[in-house]
Amino acid sequence: MKNVNKVYWSVIIVCGLLFIADALYHKHPYFSLETWFGFYGLYGFIACVGLVLAAKEMRRMLLRDEKYYETDNRDKGDDA
User: Is 76 within a domain?
Assistant: First the structure.
């Protein structure tokens, strides 16, 4: 658990430093939204959350019973 906390906080610190580093370089935006401070980090976070939420909804549609793929041997006459 100790190492998990180190990795967790390391990732948070790196993400924070990269977010701050966004102010340190000159951008060549195509759209005006790209000039906002931290746009790419926020865009990536929102996209990631959207993917997770979409996957949760897809799971509801695609989920099958445990025995969904099992064949019914009684129909084939097998006694296995």
Answer: no
